[in-house]
Amino acid sequence: MNKEITSVQLTKDYFDAIKKNDPEIGAYLTLTEELALKQAQFVDQRIASGEEVDLLAGIPCAIKDNMCVDGVRATAGSKMLDSYISPYDATVISRLKEVGAVILGKTNMDEFAMGSSTENSAYQLTRNPHDAERVSGGSSGGSAAAVAADEAAWSLGSDTGGSIRQPASFCGVVGLKPTYGRVSRHGLIAMASSLDQIGPFAKTVEDCAIILSRISGEDKMDATSAQSADKRYEDFLTGNIKGIKIGIPKEYVQNLEGKIKEEFEKSVEKFKSLGAKIVEISLPHSSYSLATYYMIMPSEVSSNLARFDGIKYGLRINDQENTEFIENGKTERNLLETYMDTREYGFGTEVKRRIMLGTYALSSGYYDAYYLKAQKVRALIRDDFEKAFEEVDFIYSPTAPEVAFKAGEKTDDPLKMYLSDIYTVTANLAGVPAISFPIGFLESDGKKLPLGGQLMGKWFDEEGLLNAAHTFETN
Amino acid sequence: MLTKEEIQHIAGLARISLHEKEIEKYQKDLSGILDYFTELQKLDTESVEAIGHITGMRNVFRQDKSSDFGSIGKEEILKNAPETKGGYVKVKSVL
Asked: Tell me, what DSSP letter sits at residue A164?
């Protein structure tokens, strides 16, 4: 440790940067200045007294607003939770607090993590730090932009179908979605429970490895969290990938064109020059993955979001207030009307669309044809990965079929927006870990827009995955 | 295309109030997405076992013991409830 700057000073510097830049970027929904400075002071005292501290101790970070921090508002980007103050820490947060990480605030996101641009946030748009006319990606756009704009040293996001990797690609930072079950989701506001996973954003792959080591591991509060040894992923970054095999799925790259294709091919050449063996592979069920995802996800959304009923916590449309909801002069609501009007007003358009779709898919008579069918196709998609991983160590593609798009460009057409997720959803469906890291830039309107490459690895092979991305990044 | 009645039925199940003008929009949106899904019907999945837990985790057991509001405490939890009475969440009468 160099002791060049105190944690308190570093924390103050970040708040200065936030106050200067965030009015334009819109990365944060809530700042936790008091909490941050208290954590920073505590770490400084420990260092002053000669104590050994963790690598993350005193380093300021940002947390996506769907993770609970004790005593801090957690909106998940929704009006439904506008006044919700979390009474407990998510497991990832308590683990971070234990090692002395400093939490600067909570970041903007698409409502309940549903979207690819933060345009579905009930609060604000998070603009892309590389071009303010463009989106930061989503749903974890606030967390990605906070790191890219130097408003946090690193951040946490959540990824259900690409919500960490796509914004990482758009904002030019590194984003990791770990294996399903690697990180506990206790205290993460659930979206689609068979797909959701928490992961880090940072400037480097090594930082992501360090963060993953601190947040991962089994948790009795999340029965889906996997047993795992206490690993320090940063110790596996050898910088050597000679002889590893990287598969490129032909289904993913056959439609690539123009500058994206050029940049992607350059990155493939770079992997070759580092000693990796490049193999063309096939994931034959790829063309079904988006449809499978957009059936499983809304079904689980409709079930998870049933908890927002206007009774236990969050918004309630009251009898006397909210007069715009009193129709035909009726001033009293019964229980059913309370539920229905609270959900009508509290949820935004995209959230309601997905709840409706999922409710339909799970409704009597349709379950077999829709949700069950999708979970069967999902098994075929997983089998594709199992077969591919018999032949190769990693699977490589662009993270997204595009660079950051302009705000408003896709908001009218949900299907068009869903296509942003085409390369990312499969990792969630198959449960494998995947990382997005910067591979180049595209120029548009005189702005340099970052482009990300995505490596997917075998189940629970985060160390190999991080090492491959790290080796690419540092050469 | 889903009918108006179907949309109203789904909204009822989802406990979401609908305004008349939204019904048509949902008809269009949901039908579009469901059409997209018909692609999956082409696949033969007769002998495929559906995914339960993606990394193959089996039953996870814990002791069948309750703890009263855990370490958080009742008061902290009730603070977020829109309406409480005598230490309970207040719910409108069902009947």
From this structure: T
Report CA torsion sign: A128, A102, A227, A225: negative
Pairing, β A102-107 against β A60-64: parallel
Domain ranges of chain A: 1-308+347-475
CB A233 within 8 A of CB A198: no
Contacts of A315 in chain B (CB under 8 A): 82
Q: What is the pLDDT of residues A5-63, one digit of tens each?
A: 999 999 999 999 999 999 999 999 999 999 999 999 999 999 999 999 999 999 999 99
Identify residue A409 by its one-letter amino acid code: E
Query: Active-site residue numbers of A?
Result: 64, 139, 163
Whose CA is closest to A198, among A277, A257, A140?
A140
Closest Cα to residue A192, out of A294, A84, A108?
A294
Q: How far is CA B67 from the centre of its chain?
A: 26
Residue A203: name the closest of A139, A146, A118, A135 by CA: A146
Query: pTM for this structure?
Result: 0.96
Non-local (6+) Cβ contacts of A46 within 8 A are: A53, A57, A100
What lies within 8 Å, CB to CB, of A310 at 6+ separation is A316, A317, A338, A339, A342, A343, A346, B82
Q: Where do the domains of chain B lie?
A: 1-64
Cα–Cα distance, A180 to A385 (Å, whole number): 15
Q: How far apart are CA A339 and CA A326, in angstroms?
A: 14
Residue to mutate among A326, A356, A461, with most B CBs inside 10 A, is A356
Instruction: Label residue A319 by pLDDT band (50, 70, 90).
Output: low
Nearest to A415 among B33, B51, B81 (CB): B33
- Which of A87, A336, A376 lies at the smallest CB-CB distance from B72? A87
Using the CB atoms, write b or e for A44-56: b if 16+ within 10 Å.
bebbeeeeeebbb
Which chain A residues are within 8 Å of B62, Cβ to Cβ? 220, 223
CB neighbour burial string for B60-72, b if at least 16 within 10 angstroms, e if fewer: eeeeeeeeeeeee
Neighbour-count burial of A245, counting CB atoms closer than 10 A to its CB (0-12 exposed, 13-18 middle, 19+ buried): middle
Average pLDDT, chain A: 94
CATH number of this structure's domain A1-308+347-475: 3.90.1300.10
